[in-house]
Structures are given as C-alpha cells and as structure tokens.
Amino acid sequence: MGLEQIIPAIFLIAVLILVLPGFLSSNSNSKQFFKNLFIWSVIVISIVVVLNLIFK
C-alpha cells in the first residue's frame, strides 16, 4: 500500500469523523435514518460502478 493510497484514506476517515455526528443527530428516528442511509448507499454504489466502467 503506497503513500498515494494511504493519504486519501486518511482524508476520507477525517471527513467521516466530521460528518458522522451531524448525520446521526439529524436522523434521530430510525425510519428516517435507514431511508437516508439507503439513499447514500445508492449514490456511493452508483459512483463506484461508473468509475469502474470508466477506468477499466
């Protein structure tokens, strides 16, 4: 694992630490939390699929 993979991973973890408390506090009930989690999962999966199609 080179430095070009470690640095982005550290930045992504830092962003997650900064965003997660606000995300959890704004989604206080479980129905809204799972709905938002599903929406974000679809967004992330679609981005990963598109990037895999472009770069392969």
Description:
This protein has 56 residues and is mainly α. The chain has one domain. 89% of the residues lie in helices and 0% in strands. It has two helices and no strands. The protein has helices at 3-26, 30-55. The longest helix has 26 residues, at 30-55. The radius of gyration is 15 Å and the shape is flat. The two termini are 20 Å apart. The model has no long low-confidence stretch (mean pLDDT 87).
List the helices and strands and how they pair.
Blueprint: H1 3-26, H2 30-55
Number of helices: 2
Helix/strand structural class: mainly alpha
Ranges where pLDDT stays below 50 over 5 or more residues in a row are none
Tell me the quaternary state.
single chain
For the CA atoms, what is the radius of gyration? Answer: 15 Å
Proportion of strand residues: under 5%
Tags for this model:
single chain, 56 residues, mainly alpha, flat
A few lines on this structure:
Helices cover 89% and strands 0% of the residues. It has helices at residues 3-26, 30-55.
